[in-house]
Here is the input.
Amino acid sequence: MVCYYGAAELFDWQERMIGNGIDGNAKINCSDLMEFKRTFTNHVPDKKEQALNKNAIDTYHGKASFISDNQFS
Here is the structure.
């Protein structure tokens, strides 16, 4: 989600800056954005996962889905 947030933030800043030195027209290539996102979400190295767990950060594998506004499974 971080890359989606960053893309949305880019558009927001662009809109605010038009006429203040920014004249460009940002575009999102969804395929490239998804490919970029996958570079840091597809696989977490074992050592990184172990370090997260050692620091009391739980890791989960699989696909999550929302079952309500406040719960996911």
Observations:
- Residues 2-43 form one domain.
